[in-house]
Amino acid sequence: MGEEVLRVENLHVSVDGVEIIKGLNLVINKGEVHAIMGRNGAGKSTLANAIMGHPAYEISAGTIHYLGRPLEDLQVFERARAGMFLSFQYPVVIPGVQVGTFLRKSVKAVRGDDSPSPRQFRVELKETMSLLDMDPSFLGRYVNDGFSGGEKKRLEILQMLLLQPKLALLDETDSGLDIDALKVIADGINSVTNAAGCLVITHYQRLLDHVKPDFVHVMIDGVIVKTGGPGLAGQLEEKGYEWLDSVV
To answer: Which of these CATH numbers, 3.40.50.300, 2.30.30.240, 2.60.40.290, 3.40.190.80, describes 4-247?
Structure first.
């Protein structure tokens, strides 16, 4: 078993006074890929946002530890600097901010004194963009402004690769992708899995055909009701979730 990256114990999370997560437990070690599947509204995105520290998500009970450290006193930017990364289900548009500038400042903010020199950053950026089959002209565009769904997800993965996280939280990164784009995104995710713990939130097995999970968890009504290996995703594709409703 690798180094423990994330430990969630008896977590309860509310949004606008409504409890969404209702006593969830999860442990992720370095080098492990955990997939969470479930119906819309099950609490999957709520879990990712709560781990990252989104202020709209109130933790009413339970604990989250990252690399052995409790997270409740860390703000979002401090979690990012500590090596946590969240890819958004719906990436935001930032008009007027060029992608190249955004990436350079993001890397500098997270890496701090370990930031590469401008020349080193350009080399690293070029190599990483090549991995994701991204044209250099992409850097001159405004962040997510007029981007297709696939372009938005490529930018998310590009950020992740440059930031080199220890914990990657990937919220429906596969949504809206065609077959070719899915393979490119999956290759990007696979390139960080040895050095990080990964939590992949998805509705479909197709991503998990390319990013092989060590564990698949099924979330229903704010709790994990079943955990299995990669084959569990196939069962869900075949049977849906009704056969697990009685477990809740």
So the answer is: 3.40.50.300
